[in-house]
Write a structure and sequence with these properties.
The complex is a heterodimer of chains A (about 525) and B (about 575). Chain A is mainly β. Chain A is about 10% helix and about 35% strand. Classes of the chains: A mainly beta (about 525), B mainly alpha (about 575). Chain B: GO terms for molecular function: protein phosphatase regulator activity.
Chain lengths: ~525, ~575
């Protein structure tokens, strides 16, 4: 390793924010040596909730797995398993498996003869209420609202009708979830009748009937139960690419290739179409929606990105159908620089707002761009992520990797951005002006092994030394050849308030903190 | 465990099933909670049942919803109003659950109980409950709290009143938009219980906070309280405090807010009095009628009649009518449709001259609108039109519109117009009907769509009821019976259906002389579906005709059918025969 060179570059960094030292903290679902990746286990979405105490992942098999913060006393302090381990002197944020549930099943659309995959492509957390975790999950067609809540497992005893003495009378089942040892009886006609025909004029003495009593309920262990509360279906003709919750806590949007629909969380039978790009003649179609997201503070503002590399901001106050945008953000390409791939690599795969709503981050195949909402002439910063792959675009086109949709994320303080790449690598960039932080990490237990710091920040036209950096970090593999397009790190999330990144490499979830 | 006497068995089962694994049985028990309470007696209900319910509150939402509803009417079962407070704890927990409908029901029940509680109990139990909820950790509790203030406030001592007002003011500024929305929704109700002196200060400042909220969703609920507050304030205060707000709302950036204003504006006119209405509200309303956003125009157009009723005719003609004229050729069909459904109500306001001169052209253009919904909306309000402009003028333009709708290529449109035919017939009279509409009614019997044929048959029945059997025997029955020879069996079925509907209206004599022979002939049809329908029709005619006719005509015919090779025909024939026997024996 030519680590010395890397450090030299790092030492030249001059900025207000010092680069972060990333440490591996945890991995879930790591493959054993020689173990094959199971297709259904591949993680296809992940999201922290607003407080950062919970993390949800969705996988190709339609399952959602929830993790919870484990290194905090106040969180679930009453639980026995917490008390057995001493977490008070925690060195790093730690999460643990909480619960898993099957969110979507494979379906078949009979009308259009299409298979609908169960893959959970989007997860959005809703406002936590009354201790219950509430989240939306979607596959390509259907969105579901889930409530995950602790339920006490109950043991019922002291019933009026004694099961053990029920002799000839067909009796009731009264077993609770846990009391499987009790006998189960079925209802006979004898009992059906009195229950339903119980007359109100049955004589009851004024003081009541002393021999009757209420059953005794003993609460046992608590269990987490996930229940599907609502299903928002049949509103999308094309594949849903994103869902996003509104800051008003009562609405969300879902976007497919051509349309964006607005839903009320409480109403699953109607949604309102707010953007419709579908032309009368499909041949006139020039671009599709690739991602849509609500502004974190202003409930009336949303942004959506297109396959032509533009981000449009729309104001829901303006009109009911917002086909005309209020602002459009795109970068003008230098004339003459067009190639066959120009349009393909311009397509934005993900767009996110910073927490304060002032900045937006977008990811296209080659770069990560930071936009100021108040400046639509061009991005305030462009970070080159895949510049070293430019000579290989042909290969990437042939194996369709050029269409991979990489996610991107801003840190809670808006100072840094992260996005994924091939070879299970992800890159962290400093966004603050003057920061030249650019760290490359690989999703494994030793992320700093290939870490390199370099000044990858380009002020628009200035081509940075990233290609150089790549050579530095993988000297053994020869220049430019150093990537494995089958190991792609598409999905990652930054903790809302701490320097903690969760990223998904195939079926493994890696966490890093700094 | 004790054993239970036989007669108590059902109640014992009901009690045990409060905790059954099967949610349907738990629901059933909860719905019979009053029976359980009576069986336990008032004292044990208070001491055992209610605490039991309070402890077992992590059930499914359906069960919790039923529980919230039952507890609202539970005062008699706990021993009357002096014990009403024992019902508060279980409802308090239900006020905090995450499912909105359960919370709403719990709040509703708490209000119902609170309004019956004694004043001292309200102070001891209800007000502390409201305060606890308002300070709740989760937004759900705080949302519920907003709906309880109007019950708690009136009986509170002065010290508590001040505190309650300040708590409500905090809720209006809560971090969570859900809480602010709940505060905005309930502000009108709360304000109605607050003393006039505090109304102008405390409540108005809360109102102002809400009207300046960042969230559209909060602001548009504040619009709703404008009218409610306006009615509570003195006119001059209303003009000073509410009017500027509503005028600025009517120019809000958000179309949803303007939409709400368009819906509510007329309610405020009375509160502010005639002069401010003329100077401020009419211009605001005119702006809304000309809004850029179609949704806003729809809302405004839908209220045009209600608004005009408040104004003087001159104002309406001068300011509103020009807008109405524009709206009648609006680019959005939904705007025109909304206008069409209310426009006729303007006629009495404007008077006959203005109506004929100004309104009638608009009305006629809407009647010729390219969208069927618009035309239908006009036709559905025909009774109002008729009173103002008279039938002669109307019929000239009406008929082409009706004929066009009757032949519309969308069957739902045809269905809609059929439903209006009896109304039209009664309005337009026999003469007009015979000339113009009779043929249409017959034509629908042979429509390609079953629902239309079905509706056509029903329509004939309603017409027969309207114009009487004598008219029907001339104008309906012969034409209908002619069609029984249609080569397609589905059309013959329709005729059979029409006959069975007409028979009860026409009475025994006509049925026996005219309808019955046709039915009997149809029993010789070659299609089994016709034959078993004959059996059904015959069964339905049994009560109408004399017993002798039943024996002489219906029974032999059914006996024949009962030996048909087709199993369905035999089945229905036998069923009809059984019903004859049943009639005879009873």
């Amino acid at each position: 390793m030519n680590g010395g060179d890397g450090e030299d570059v790092a030492s030249t960094v001059a900025g207000p924010v010092a680069p972060l030292e990333w440490k591996f903290t945890q991995v879930f679902g790591e493959l054993a040596l020689g173990e094959e990746v199971q297709e259904v286990d591949v993680i296809t979405s992940l999201e922290f909730n607003k407080s950062g105490d919970h993390l949800a992942t969705g996988d190709r098999g339609g399952r959602v797995v929830l993790f919870e913060r484990a290194d905090r006393k106040e969180h679930g302090g009453n639980r026995r398993d917490l008390e057995t381990v001493d977490y008070s002197v925690s060195r790093y944020p730690e999460f643990r498996y909480k619960v898993e549930f099957q969110s979507h099943e494979p379906e078949f659309d009979n009308l259009r003869s299409l298979e609908i995959e169960e893959k959970v492509s989007n997860i959005q957390w809703c406002q936590t209420a009354n201790g219950a975790l509430i989240l939306l999950s979607s596959n390509e067609k259907t969105i579901k609202l889930w409530k995950v809540q602790e339920k006490r497992v109950k043991k019922i005893s002291n019933l009026n009708i004694d099961l053990s003495k029920a002799e000839g009378i067909v009796s009731v089942t009264s077993s609770s979830v846990s009391s499987s040892s009790e006998q189960h009886f079925t209802y006979g006609s004898f009992l059906d009748c009195p229950r339903n025909c119980l007359s109100d004029n049955l004589f009851i003495p004024p003081g009541g009937i002393p021999s009757l009593h209420l059953p005794v309920v003993k609460s046992g262990e608590t269990r987490l139960i996930a229940r599907s509360k609502r299903v928002y279906a049949k509103a999308h003709h094309y594949h849903i690419n994103s869902i996003s919750n509104n800051s008003d806590g009562e609405t969300f949007i879902s976007a497919d290739d051509l349309r964006i629909n607005l839903w009320n969380l409480e109403v699953n039978i109607q949604s309102f179409n707010i953007v419709d790009l579908k032309p009368v003649n499909m041949e006139d179609l020039t671009e599709v929606i690739t991602s849509a997201v609500f502004h974190p503070i202003h409930c009336n503002v949303l942004a959506y990105s297109s396959s032509r590399g533009s981000i449009r901001l729309i104001d829901l106050r303006q009109s009911a159908l917002c086909d005309s945008h209020s602002k459009i953000y795109e970068e003008q390409l230098a004339p003459g620089s067009r190639t066959f791939f120009t349009e393909i690599i311009a397509s934005i795969s993900d767009v996110k707002f910073a927490k304060d709503g002032r900045y937006m981050l977008s990811r296209d195949f080659m770069t990560l761009k930071l936009w100021d909402v108040n400046m639509d002439s061009g991005p305030v910063a462009t970070f080159k992520v895949h510049e070293h792959l430019r000579p290989k675009l042909c290969d990437l086109y042939e194996n369709e990797c050029i269409f991979d949709k990489f996610a991107c994320c801003l840190s809670g303080d808006g100072q840094r951005a992260v996005t994924g790449s091939y070879s299970n690598m992800f890159r962290v960039f400093g966004c603050a002006s003057g920061s030249a932080e650019a760290t490359t990490l690989e999703a494994n237990k030793n992320p700093m092994r290939r870490l390199v710091m370099t000044s990858a920040r380009s002020s628009r036209s200035l081509c940075s030394g990233f290609t150089h950096a790549v050579r530095l970090e993988r000297p053994g593999l020869g220049s430019g050849n150093s990537f494995d397009s089958t190991r792609k790190l598409l999905h990652l999330a930054w903790h809302p308030s701490e320097n903690l990144i969760a990223c998904a490499a195939a079926n493994s979830l890696y966490m890093y903190c700094a | 465990m004790s054993t239970v006497d036989e007669p108590l068995y059902p109640i014992a089962v009901l009690i045990d099933e409060l905790k059954n694994d099967d949610i349907q049985l738990r629901l059933n028990s909860i719905r019979r909670l009053s029976t359980i309470a009576r069986a336990l007696g008032e004292e044990r209900t208070r001491k055992e049942l209610i605490p039991f319910l309070s402890e077992n509150n992590d059930d499914d939402d359906e069960v919790l919803l039923a529980m919230a509803e039952e507890l609202g009417v539970f005062i008699p079962y706990v021993g009357g109003v002096e014990h009403a407070h024992v019902l508060l704890p279980p409802l308090e927990t239900l006020c905090t659950v995450e499912e909105t409908c359960v919370r709403d029901k719990a709040v509703e029940s708490l209000c119902r109980i609170g309004s019956q509680m004694r004043e001292s109990d309200l102070v001891d139990w209800f007000i502390p409950l409201v305060k606890r909820l308002a300070a709740g950790e989760w937004f759900t509790a705080r949302v519920s709290a907003c709906g309880l203030f109007h019950i708690a406030y009136p009986s509170a001592p002065d010290m508590f009143k001040t505190e309650l007002r300040s708590i409500y003011s905090q809720l209006c500024q809560d971090d969570m938009p859900m809480v602010r929305r709940a505060a905005a929704t309930n502000l009108g109700k709360f304000a109605a219980t607050v003393e006039a002196a505090h109304l102008k200060t405390d409540i108005m400042s809360m109102f102002e906070d809400l009207t300046q909220d960042d969230q559209d969703s909060v602001r548009l609920l504040a619009v709703e309280s404008c009218a409610a507050l306006g009615k509570l304030l003195e006119p001059q205060d209303c003009v000073a405090h509410i009017l500027p707000v509503i005028v600025s709302f009517s120019q809000d950036k958000s179309w949803r807010v303007r939409y709400m204003v368009a819906n509510q504006l007329y309610e405020l006119c009375e509160a502010v009095g005639p002069e401010p209405t003329r100077t401020d509200l009419v211009p605001a309303y005119v702006r809304l009628l000309r809004d850029n956003e179609a949704e806003v125009r729809i809302a405004a157009a839908g209220k045009v009649t209600k608004f005009c009723r408040i104004l003087s005719p001159e104002l309406a003609i001068q300011h509103i009518l020009p807008c109405v004229k524009e709206l009648s050729s609006d680019s959005s069909q939904h705007v025109r449709s909304a206008l069409a459904s209310v426009i006729m109500g303007m006629a009495p306001v404007l008077g006959k001259d203005a109506t004929i001169e100004q309104l009638l052209p608009i009305f006629l253009s809407l009647l010729k609108d390219e969208f069927p919904d618009v035309r239908l909306n006009i036709i559905s309000k025909l009774d109002q039109v008729n009173q103002v402009i008279g039938i002669d003028l109307l019929s000239q333009s009406l008929l082409p519109a009706i004929v066009e709708l009757a032949e519309d290529r969308h069957w739902r449109v045809r269905l809609a117009i059929i439903e209006y035919i009896p109304l039209l017939a009664s309005q337009l009279g026999v003469g007009f009907f015979d000339d113009k509409l009779g043929a249409l009614c017959m034509q629908w019997l042979e429509d390609k769509v079953h629902s239309i044929r079905d509706a056509a048959a029903n329509n004939l029945k309603r017409l027969a009821e309207e114009f009487g059997p004598e008219w029907s025997i001339q104008h309906i029955v012969p034409q209908v019976l002619d069609k029984i020879t249609n080569p397609h069996y589905l059309y013959r079925m329709t005729i059979l259906h029409a006959v069975s509907l007409l028979a009860p209206v026409m009475g025994s004599e006509i049925t026996c002389s005219t309808l019955l022979p046709v039915i009997v002939t149809a029993s010789k049809d070659k299609v089994p579906n016709i034959k078993f329908n004959v059996a059904k029709v015959l069964q339905s005619t049994i009560p109408i005709v004399d017993q002798s006719v039943v024996e002489k005509t219906i029974r032999p015919c059914l006996i024949d059918l009962a030996e048909d090779p087709d199993v369905d025909v035999r089945f229905f024939a036998n069923q009809a025969l059984q019903s004859i026997d049943h009639m005879m024996s009873s």
